[in-house]
Design a protein that fits this description.
alpha+beta
Length: 141
C-alpha cells in the first residue's frame, strides 16, 4: 500500500470547514483535474455510496466510493469502483483545529498499477494542489 498526505490550513471555523467538506458536491466545484461530476445522494453518512464520474471531457469513468465511517470531524471513503491507475483507495478526511488555525487533512492509502513517485508527482500532487487553491478561494469570499 502507498501513502499520500496533504494538509490545507483554511481561513474559517472548524464547523464551516466540516460543513463544506461533508458533502461530495463540493468536489465538483473544487476539482478541475480531473473534472468531477456527482450523481445521487452526495451527503456524507455511514453506509452511503458516493457516485462520481471523473475524467477530462468528453471522456469520463465511474468512481464509486462507500462511506464506511463518519465521526466527529472525520470520515472515510473507500473506493468500490476506482479508475486506472488505482486498484485500492481509502481516503480519510479530517478537519482539525490547531493552535495556528483550522486544517483540512487528506490522508490517503492506495494501491496503483503505476509507481508511487509517478502517481504522487503527476496525479495526486497536482490534483490536491489544485483542490487546495479552490478551497482557499472558497473560504476567502
Amino acid at each position: 500500500m502507498k501513502h499520500f498526505l496533504t494538509e490545507t490550513r483554511v481561513p474559517t471555523t472548524k464547523d464551516q470547514a466540516w460543513l463544506f467538506l461533508s458533502d461530495a458536491k463540493a468536489l465538483t466545484g473544487m476539482t478541475t483535474f480531473p473534472k468531477v461530476q456527482t450523481s445521487g445522494d452526495t451527503r456524507t453518512y455511514a453506509g452511503n455510496t458516493i457516485q462520481l464520474k471523473v475524467g477530462l471531457p468528453p471522456i469520463y469513468v465511474k468512481w464509486d466510493s462507500i462511506i464506511p465511517m463518519v465521526g466527529r470531524d472525520v470520515f472515510v471513503d473507500v473506493g468500490v469502483k476506482v479508475p486506472f491507475p488505482f486498484s485500492v483507495w481509502c481516503h480519510t478526511h479530517r478537519v482539525e483545529e490547531r493552535v495556528d488555525g483550522v486544517y483540512m487533512v487528506d490522508d490517503l492509502i492506495y494501491k496503483s498499477y503505476l509507481p508511487k513517485w509517478f502517481v504522487d508527482l503527476f496525479i495526486l500532487g497536482p490534483m490536491f494542489r489544485q483542490r487546495k487553491q479552490a478551497i482557499l478561494h472558497h473560504f476567502s469570499k
